[in-house]
Amino acid sequence: MPVELNLNYTQNYVRPHELEAVWPQVAAAHNSLHAGTGLGNDFLGWIDLPVHYDKEEFARIKAAAARIKKDCQVLIVIGIGGSYLGARAAIEFIQSPQYNSLPKDTPDIYFAGNSISPTYLNEILRLCEGKDICVNIISKSGTTTEPALAFRVFRELLINKYGPEGAKTRIYCTTDKARGTLKELAAREGYECFVIPDDVGGRFSVLTACGLLPIAAAGCDIDAMMRGAADARSAYSAADMDKNDCYRYAAMRNILYAKGKAVEVLVSYEPAFAMMAEWFKQLFGESEGKDGKGLYPASMIFSTDLHSLGQFVQDGSRVMFETVVDIGTPRADFFIKEDAENFDGINFLSGQNMSIVNDKAKQGTILAHIEGGTPNIVLKIPEMNAYEFGFLVYFFEKACAISGYMLGVNPFDQPGVEAYKRNMFALLGKPGYEEERAALEKKLK
Ligand code: PA5
Q1: How many domains does one find in the chain?
Q2: CA–CA separation, 122 vs 20, rounded Å?
Q3: How far away, in angstroms, is 83 Cα from ligand 1 center?
Q4: CA neighbor of 276 nearest in space, from 218, 226, 327, 236
């Protein structure tokens, strides 16, 4: 099985009968999810997406990726939240966090529209100077302010560089099939469009065109990715928790939460996993953090964070557990050489593969952390490739849905995200927000 679940390091905190005791809740969550009778049941398209996707559009995505590769040196991917994190996570996981700097025959990819920082935007514009550019604007609603601001800038850049007609052939638009400002503009201008289906929410959309086009443009094998997700769909379809590691993981995190472990830290020993952890944090944070409930999803990359947050995990407030994603085989080996002088005293590691040192660091850390009062769940995956990415995405999506239902929340909405937007619009003086603006400005005085 591509994801091996190990619950051995939770034994001091959770007894086997406790896992059995939540089985009826898991079964109820499974039944609601698969019968489509639970909260947010109009957003369940992700469940069968790995097999029931639009094959004609999939072929068009591959063709567009090939055209992007031919036409440009830089692809600007504009989007935020679910319209950003999955693609970036995939590219770093499957290719490298150094994707842009390493030799390759695919374009550099820069992400824009995920902040409103003028500094960041200016830096991306500088990186585009003298380069051929394409743009993929991604917004399911087609109305989100941050990507809309960035798109305005890059659209103008393309028009100035290639003329209005030339720009049109370099803009790829991923949005709703019928609604939204972006859809209207794309229809008017004749941009090539891809669809985020109505029944797939933003944070569950990485396996739609939302993730697939930039991921394919980065040279990743999206067929293998969908195969991985399809295999995970079959692997985690059983209602029986004994046969379903995804459900056992969901159950365990809920038990730990009930016992006061309010923070789940997703840990990896591979820097290439850092953006995947960001994707995970959005998936679980936006799905579960509501009604005054939910595990706080955090992430750490070890050894890096062992020298910053490690002290806290070992010995600080006992509020967390770790979920360690243990990657079996690194993308590349590195053997440590003997030094004649042994000037640094580390010749005892000579001839050793660096991955073994990383592995021992992991084993030592797990043992130290459980001793210190931090339970560890381990998810072992064989390696970082497109197939594993698809498999892991589905594993976490399904675990998130089951976990959310066990918690009694709607895992598929995000009402809390609207609050800041209303305040921002009011403070910026958007027409229609006059009363709110006056009230907010009074509070700021
Ligand atoms: O998960 C979600 O639904 C959100 O994070 C959205 O993806 C995010 O707000 C961006 O929305 P949109 O794609 O409509 O621009």
Answers
A1: 3
A2: 55
A3: 6
A4: 327
Structural contact between residues 145 and 424, judged by C-beta atoms closer than 8 angstroms: yes
Mutational test site, ligand 1, from 140, 200, 282, max ligand atoms within 8 Å of CB = 140
**Residue 77: pLDDT band with limits 50, 70, 90:** very high
Q: Quote the strand ranges of 73-175, DSSP E.
A: 74-78, 108-112, 133-139, 171-175
Q: Is the CB of 375 under 6 A from ligand 1?
A: no
- Residue 203 in contact with ligand 1 by CB distance below 6 A: yes
Q: What is the pLDDT of residues 249-301, one digit of tens each?
A: 999 999 999 999 999 999 999 999 999 999 999 999 999 999 999 999 999 99
Report strand pairing: 4-6 vs 376-381: antiparallel
Name the residue at shortest CA distance from atom 15 of ligand 1. 139
pLDDT in tens, 166-185: 999 999 999 999 999 999 99
- Residue 72: left (phi > 0), alpha (psi -120 to 50), or beta? beta
- Distance from residue 389's CA to the centre of ligand 1 (Å): 21
Q: How far apart are CA 296 and CA 256, in angstroms?
A: 12
Positions marked active-site:
286, 307, 421
Q: Which of 318, 316, 230, 330 is nearest to 273 (CA)?
A: 330
Question: Is 114 close to ligand 1, i.e. is its CB under 6 Å away?
Answer: no
Same domain, 102 and 30: no
Q: Which two tokens mark 412? A: 């598929």
For the stretch 355-375, pLDDT in tens is 999 999 999 999 999 999 999
Q: How far is the CA of 414 from the centre of ligand 1 (A)?
A: 9
> Alpha-carbon Rg of the chain, whole angstroms?
23
The verdict on pTM exceeding 0.85 is yes
Same domain membership, residue 384 and residue 272: yes
- Determine, yes or no, domain membership for 356: no
**Nearest atom in ligand 1 to 175's CA:** 13
For residues 284 and 303, membership in a common domain is answered with yes
Which residue has its alpha carbon closest to ligand 1 atom 5?
Answer: 81
**From the CA of 9, how far away is ligand 1's center (Å)?**
36
The token duo for 60 is 């068009």
Separation CA 87–CA 105 (nearest Å): 18
In a domain, 333, yes or no: no
